[in-house]
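Weekly sync, protein design subgroup
Attendees: M.S., D.O., the rotation student, P.L. (late)

Item 1: inverse folding check
M.S. brought a backbone from last month's batch and wanted to see whether the design step gives back something sensible before we order anything. D.O. pointed out we never logged the input encoding, so this time it goes straight into the notes. Structure tokens as presented (406 positions):
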């Protein structure tokens, strides 16, 4: 068997017609086989050498390709070769043509070796390789660009490859609050203290537009010195869709406040911190009368307007959620009771002063508020805290309404 440390830099598999149609010997070498024929003689599906899960992923990608929904992407897979040695491989998945039909081309790089496969490619060969990549690819050393493809420039809103090279630095593409972490990460990977991996990042393009990218970075040798190769796929639409779904899942659709599930999650995330916590329960007075007199559309408008105004008051101090119907809950962490009571009075006043009109007449709305407070917030006393706020709110309701009790 040939010495694997001197093997060629990457192997290739082509997937078409729902099956593997081509495997080169370079791919076989990565996994400890002499040739692709040896893989098949052992009744192995070449993709299973990567991982059984990856077989399913390629089938899904091929279905997406047939539906016109496939976009090239990169993956890092941790696996092993024929002898059981651990491997880390990076896979470019790209669209290609096989027998005049759409197919998926997989380029597999062994990134588990200390010396990168790219040292076997000269600059021209590497430039030709990444020019054909649907991913954005750049090689940099301490964020000084060394080489890149046009797709990377386009993803980043750059004028041209030469313009980016002349700029001399790409650190400004990373939000400033992440500069320190990015520089530290880069140094650790270049020194071999940390392996690169695949993760989602936010970049600020040259034109100022924020975009999200699936990024894979790892150390390679570039002209005899360690450098970072970064492969990017723009996943902004996917990330924003996920953020929107997460937001909708945690917010009430009418008031845009936290829903009950999100409030309970907030409690779980902040409990047992040993700090003070104030609680308000707020109930809209005579809300059924508002609905009966003016209609539910006006009632919804009252709830939305109050929610927006009260949330603005609370935002810098704590969180507010819709507890159900016309009832709301507020948590104010790390403040003494007098501050919580003062905020509750401001919430009450904001409702009195709220301007909602029906046929030219102002719709009068008020709230009754109950306040409770604990000097040490724990998961044990949270139920008592909410129960006490509820009892105090009931006192406000039964002693005249439009008042705060605590």
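Designed sequence read out in the meeting:
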């Amino acid at each position: 068997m040939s010495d694997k440390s001197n093997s060629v830099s990457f192997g290739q598999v082509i997937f078409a017609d729902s099956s593997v149609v081509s495997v080169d010997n370079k791919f076989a070498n990565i996994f400890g086989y002499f040739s692709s024929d040896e893989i098949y003689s052992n009744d192995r599906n070449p993709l299973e050498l990567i991982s059984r899960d990856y077989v399913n992923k390629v089938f899904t990608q091929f279905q997406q390709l047939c539906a016109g929904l496939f976009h090239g992407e990169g993956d890092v897979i941790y696996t092993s070769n024929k002898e059981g040695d651990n491997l880390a491989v990076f896979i470019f998945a790209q669209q290609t043509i096989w027998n005049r039909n759409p197919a998926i081309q997989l380029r597999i790089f062994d990134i588990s070796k200390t010396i990168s496969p790219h040292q076997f490619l000269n600059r021209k060969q590497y430039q030709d390789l990444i020019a054909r990549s649907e991913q954005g690819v750049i090689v940099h050393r301490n964020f000084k660009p060394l080489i890149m493809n046009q797709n990377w420039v386009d993803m980043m809103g750059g004028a041209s490859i030469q313009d980016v090279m002349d700029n001399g630095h790409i650190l400004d593409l990373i939000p400033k609050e992440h500069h320190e972490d990015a520089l530290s990460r880069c140094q650790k990977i270049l020194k071999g203290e940390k392996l690169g991996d695949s993760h989602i990042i936010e970049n600020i393009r040259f034109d100022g537009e924020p975009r999200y990218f699936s990024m894979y970075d790892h150390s390679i040798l570039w002209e005899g010195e360690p450098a970072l190769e970064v492969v990017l796929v723009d996943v902004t639409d996917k990330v924003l869709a996920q953020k929107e779904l997460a937001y909708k899942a945690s917010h009430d659709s009418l008031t845009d406040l936290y829903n009950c599930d999100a409030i309970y999650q907030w409690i779980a995330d902040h409990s047992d911190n040993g700090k003070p916590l104030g609680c308000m329960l707020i109930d809209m007075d005579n809300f059924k009368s508002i609905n009966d007199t003016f209609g539910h559309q006006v009632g919804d408008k009252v709830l939305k307007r109050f929610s927006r105004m009260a949330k603005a008051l609370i935002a810098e101090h704590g969180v507010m959620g819709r507890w159900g119907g016309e009832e709301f809950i507020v948590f104010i962490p790390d403040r003494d009771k007098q501050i919580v009571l003062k905020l509750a009075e401001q919430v009450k006043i904001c409702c009195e002063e709220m301007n909602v009109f029906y046929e030219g007449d102002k719709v009068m709305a008020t709230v009754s508020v109950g306040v409770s407070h604990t000097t040490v917030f724990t998961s044990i006393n949270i139920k008592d805290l909410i129960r006490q706020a509820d009892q105090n709110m009931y006192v406000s309701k039964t002693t005249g309404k439009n008042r705060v009790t605590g």
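Discussion: The longest strand covers residues 86-98. Confidence is low (pLDDT under 50) at residues 1-8, 114-120.
Action: P.L. to compare against the previous round before Friday.
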